[in-house]
Amino acid sequence: MGFSVSASTSANSRIMRTKRRTGRPAARLGHATRLLPAADAPKITRAAAADGAELDAILAIVPDSPSKSLFEQLPESERWQGLNARSKPRSGTVRTTVLANRRQTFAVLGYIGAEASTFERLALAGRMLKEVSSRCPGAIGLIALGDEAAAQGSLDALLAAALASAFQMPAFRSREHEDTALERLVLLDGAKVDIPYASAAARGNNLVRWLTALPPNMLDTPAYHATIAKLAKAHKLGFEWLDEQSLRRAGANAFLAVSAANVRRDAGIAHLTYRPRGNKAISPDIALVGKGILFDTGGVNVKTHRSMLDMHIDMSGSAVALATLLALVELQAPLAVDAWLAVTENQIGPNAYRPQEVVRAANGVTIQVIHTDAEGRMVLADTLALAGKTQPRFMIDFATLTGAAVYSLTERMSGVLTNRPKLAAKLVEAGRTSGERVWNFPFDADYDTDLESKVADILQCSVDGKGDQILATRFLSRFVPENVAWAHVDLASATRTGGLAHINTDITGFGVRYALELILKHDILADAGRRK
Length: 532
Ligand code: BES
Ligand code: ZN
Ligand code: ZN
Description:
single chain, 16 helices, six-stranded mixed β-sheet, binds ligand BES, alpha/beta
């Protein structure tokens, strides 16, 4: 089963009807919007390499010092050998030619060094897909040759890049573009790859990119609420929406401070639960938490033009948590998993929260507000407190939380911080092996002196903003129960001009590949330990 429940269904049109009636900004588009991507991913098959003439393109990755005999595994091997002989190969480079068959199959040859990282393999694969995508191929062959382990990594990279490239991002042009869709991906013999895993990870990445790219008048709070509910239903997950009223009862005033400026009382925290067959656990093994700010104006401390422009992406952390959960369901992971998504806008208006307000969060901790643009830590404070009450064995949150993370890392990597120092090595290693790289920032307790408040338990942020990615995490840790192992991912790489690694769109969908690797391949639970 995929994530996509058929798009543009009656539920969506129901949303659009209410939109028109209530004059929500979504009405400005004037017709029903698809809130979920189409289900049609390319079919993945296997075939012998000799069958190249059936393909519009063949993408082959070889070592950067390939033996001549390697090319014998490719159709029209002399052609590939000629291409190889053009000049001395260099790792990470791509060259192309056309085969002599009737279809004039486009041949793309990529070189990679034996020691190359997953990131470098993904980046090469992304470059190779860029070469073919303008030709709109219907069927692409993928092959990786050379040392078995390296070739497996390269084929996995090609498959990830191809599934990302085949995905149609949301577009609202009045005249549809007539690009033919990629229908078939053919894995030509050679290295093996775990197709179900690769497909689930790619579908997750695509869903994050889709939701993150949706304009803020389409993915507004009710639309996101309905979309999450629909996905939960399609995947037979438990679903609960904690609306403002129940959040008030829970004392979640940090979240409510941010949502107060919304025109409608529609903000809330979505709680989804997945329990594998026979598992009735109340406490989950894993809690995935995400920041879902549908538009971040900055609030009363309003952002400037350039800083505000792309702030519809400020919900991507919640999309990562959601899509990771769905991928785990698709792979029937034997784990009890919850997701908690904090959904609201950060708006300006007469009811907006202000600097110097003091608010009490759901776990009783009082916060002195300093800057209304630090809304992410406010909504996450309550979301982490509520999720923490369920005593997960491991909790991880994803959030486009600080500009400081972007300043220190650029958009190439994201930041990771944890309240369990012994988890740090594994958290970073999962970034290295997945190719979605993360860098560990300090989490030392002495940073707390920068958040001392004269009137409340803690300052929301410091006044000068130095090392804000660290202080923000120290702040969040006050809302995570001491006995819960927790990691926070500051998604500096949610967007990057020109894309990142195998992803050729500015919105990268960074996070799902990382989280799946961490949970399924590095067994983060083993190091998180038992509940105390
Ligand atoms: N959503 C932003 C952080 C952000 C900015 C993420 C750019 C990705 C790209 C967050 O809500 C924010 O505005 N943070 C402030 C915090 C500050 C006021 C302490 C920031 O980083 O400037
Ligand atoms: Zn902000
Ligand atoms: Zn924000």
